[in-house]
Every structure is written in C-alpha cells, then in structure tokens.
Design a protein that fits this description.
The protein contains two helices and four strands. The protein is α+β, with helices and mostly antiparallel strands.
C-alpha cells in the first residue's frame, strides 16, 4: 500500500459568541473549494468533520494542546486526487476570544 504525505491547512477563527451548531455550517463556507487546491482534487467529508470535543486537531506531533478544549466549532475535510502524491486536509476551528486565557492557538 502506498502512503501519501498529507499537507494540512488550518484556519483558526476567533469568535466570541457562536454556538457549536451554527459554527459548523458557517465554518464549512470558509473551507477551501476543491478548485482552489488544484485540478482533479475532490472534497471528502470525514466522519468527524463537525466534531468539536474529543476530536484530534490535525495531530501531526502527538502533543495535547489545551486550546483544543476551548474550541466552540470545528470543520475538517480532506481533498483527494487519484494518483496524486499529495493529499490535503483543511481544518477550521473557532475559539472564544478571552484575553485572560494563557494559551494561544499556535502555542497550545
């Protein structure tokens, strides 16, 4: 079985008052369109596309980021291309705007 590298695209959206239900549909509108990835790529919805809690965020390092516990919305899809060496994933999350919280989206 051939293994393909996955390139991840993460977009963090900071919103102060968005419910998880409305966040999922709104975040889907922000996801890249297959034509933006390249010719021949198709968008594939994942079983955990809208999973907010207890779902790993593009885990490439195995580190537990405390910011994942604060997520209020999440939308992740994959882009596949038959025969292409590079497959992609696009994840968009919402986090509350709370200046007093000592974590950042990038620093966990």
């Amino acid at each position: 079985m051939r293994r393909f590298p996955i390139v991840a695209v993460v977009v963090v959206v900071l919103l102060s008052a968005v419910s998880a239900a409305s966040a999922g549909s709104a975040l889907g509108k922000l996801a890249l369109k297959p034509r933006q990835i390249g010719p021949g790529y198709t968008l594939h919805v994942r079983p955990d596309t809208n999973c907010v809690q207890r779902c790993v965020t593009l885990d490439m390092c195995g580190f537990d980021f405390t910011s994942e516990l604060a997520r209020t919305g999440r939308y992740q899809v994959n882009y596949l291309h038959k025969g292409a060496a590079v497959q992609l994933s696009n994840e968009i999350v919402t986090l509350p705007i709370r200046p007093s919280v000592p974590w950042t989206a990038a620093g966990g």
